[in-house]
Structure formats: structure tokens, C-alpha cells
Amino acid sequence: DGGITQSPKYLFRKEGQNVTLSCEQNLNHDAMYWYRQDPGQGLRLIYYSQIVNDFQKGDIAEGYSVSREKKESFPLTVTSAQKNPTAFYLCASSIVGGNQPQHFGDGTRLSIL
Amino acid sequence: GNSVTQMEGPVTLSEEAFLTINCTYTATGYPSLFWYVQYPGEGLQLLLKATKADDKGSNKGFEATYRKETTSFHLEKGSVQVSDSAVYFCALSLNTGGFKTIFGAGTRLFVKA
To answer: Are A99 and B106 a contacting pair at CB < 8 A?
Structure first.
């Protein structure tokens, strides 16, 4: 079955540490996205990419970095510069176009040790 | 700017009750509109969508009609079940500006047996 796989499901970060969240899709979608979800809140866009080797900052990119070296993969690094990283992180993908729905992974919950 | 406003939750209903979750939007241009559902510990799933004015999206007993004159896309279901308990997100997507999707804050629904 086609879909999006995020790993790990739970992740713990120590102070001063960078951590990388994995996102892989086999839907052959060109566009991929990273969102942050805080309790009781909606989704906020961190980064998005519409084509390999290109990506754009979203609304809350500070303290995060991404790469898009392969169509299937869009890893997110939460750097030590992100002072409040505890959240639920969701990866999504879609066909490029404004009327196309996004397909989501099951998320990674990141906590600080 | 572009935005989505949903009614605040939580909404608590008894099984077989009628459900309405209000959603209004502000957008430049002609957005596509979506409802997504999120079950505990999971990512979002597309519930239904509408791409132009007066379109009705429907799925699993849920319906929403794209009302351009009132800039609304209210979600309705005639008879809810316990299994409908989840968080519901209204969203819009434009055909410009990187095709980003803007999500509402979400409305949590509890259905009691």
C-alpha cells in the first residue's frame, strides 16, 4: 500500500542536541511538507518542498532545517537553536496543485529530556 | 491575509445526534476547501473536499457545501457515532503562492454512547 512513513514515533532530545525526523513516501508525490502541532492548536507549516533539491521556509522555520535529495524523502532536523521543540511533528505529501489534498504520516512526538 | 476560523470545541454529543461544525474562511482568489479528521495519536486524513462554489463534498455520512457568498464550509452529519470522536480540521488551499494549505485550529468532537 502507498503511504507516508514517519520515524521514530517517539523521540527524546537532550539540551544542545540536534535530532533528525525521518519522512518517506511512496506515493510518487512531488510536494512534501513538515508541520508542527502543539496541544489544542492547529498545524503550523515549518518547511515545504515542491521538487527535489528545492525547498521553502514556512511560517515557523527558525531552528529547523530540511533537505530534499530524493523525491521520496524529506527529513527534518530540529537543531539546538529551537528552544521549544516539544511538539507533535507531522509530515505530508501531495501532488502539486491548489486543489490537491495532502496525505499525512502518523507523526513523531518529540520531547525534551 | 488568508485564514480559516472554526468553532471552538470541544463539542460533546450523544450518539445519533446531529452534528454541525462551523468553518469560515478568508482568502484572496478562489480556494479549494477541505475537511480533515485526526484520530488520537495519528496524522490527519482527508474527509472531504470541494473545489468550487456550490460544490458539495461528502464521505462516510459527512457533508459540507462550499458557500462563496458566506465564505463558509460547515461540516454536517445527520447521526453521529462513538467512532466519530476525533479532531476535525477545516482547511483551504490556493492555486498560487506555493499551493500552501492553511488549517483551522481544529474542533474536538466527543460522542457519548
So the answer is: no
